[in-house]
Design brief:
alpha+beta; 2 domains; four-stranded antiparallel beta sheet; 49% helix
Length: 140
């Protein structure tokens, strides 16, 4: 990853991270998705989106189960999911509604996706705001 790209992610607001996340996800750009999420949240996202493929492909299912401990499986899963996501309908329409603080280094972004209200939780990390599914609880 280039230094310029890294720097541009560090200056993004929580709101901007959510918009970029959806654009990257539905474009099949898992490299960017990975940069915008904590590692645990990224793995959870791969597992969620890989579930449909795992029902149809036993080898993929086995690789999906090993993504946290086997880098070859992670690369294979990312490659397959990236291609699958890129063939889905274009990036969904996302409209940020509000943001709120859940502590000094946590935010909740409320947004509308295809007329459904949703939330994403983010935590402030050294490299900028990251989507973090575990950051939803309020802390002091």
């Amino acid at each position: 990853m280039s230094e310029a790209r890294f720097s541009s992610f560090t200056i993004l607001s929580a709101r901007e991270v959510v918009g970029l996340y959806y654009h990257a996800l539905y474009s099949g750009d898992l490299g960017t998705v990975r940069e915008l999420m904590t590692e645990k949240s990224y793995f959870m996202t791969l597992e969620t989106f890989g579930l449909r493929l795992s029902f149809r492909d036993a080898e993929f299912k086995e690789q999906l189960g090993k993504i946290e401990e086997d880098s070859a499986s992670l690369v294979a899963v990312e490659s397959r999911l990236s291609a699958d996501l890129a063939t889905r309908k274009p990036s969904r329409q996302i409209k940020i509604v509000s943001t709120s603080w859940n502590g000094d280094k946590r935010q909740t972004v409320d947004y509308r996706e295809e007329d459904k209200m949703k939330k994403l939780y983010l935590s402030k990390e050294e490299s900028g705001w990251k989507i973090n599914y575990y950051a939803g609880r309020k802390v002091d």
